[in-house]
Design brief:
There is one protein chain. With 77 residues, this protein is mostly helical. 43% of the residues lie in helices and 10% in strands. The protein contains two helices and two strands. A two-stranded antiparallel sheet has the order 1-2.
Length: 77
């Protein structure tokens, strides 16, 4: 197969974000040394993991390693 015939490996999307959301995305990307594109990829991947788990009937929790207290993550539909 000719490289010119191959399907593109990425799709360009345009997303409008509120200023505060864009600021948080930039902060997170800077803190983790990521490009905004990689930050968006990471966010989508995490969203899918959480959504799949909840749809499968699992609970997703954040557990404090010191107190062992947990908080359940919920996705608002």
């Amino acid at each position: 197969m000719d490289v010119a015939d191959a399907a593109p490996t990425s799709v360009r999307l345009s997303v409008n974000l509120a200023h505060d959301v864009a600021r948080v995305m930039r902060e997170l990307c800077s803190r983790n040394n990521l490009s905004v594109t990689d930050g968006v990829r990471r966010a989508i991947t995490l969203w899918k993991i959480i959504d799949d788990a909840i749809r499968a009937g699992h609970r997703v929790e954040i557990v404090d390693p010191v107190t062992e207290r947990s908080r359940e993550l919920l996705l608002v539909q």
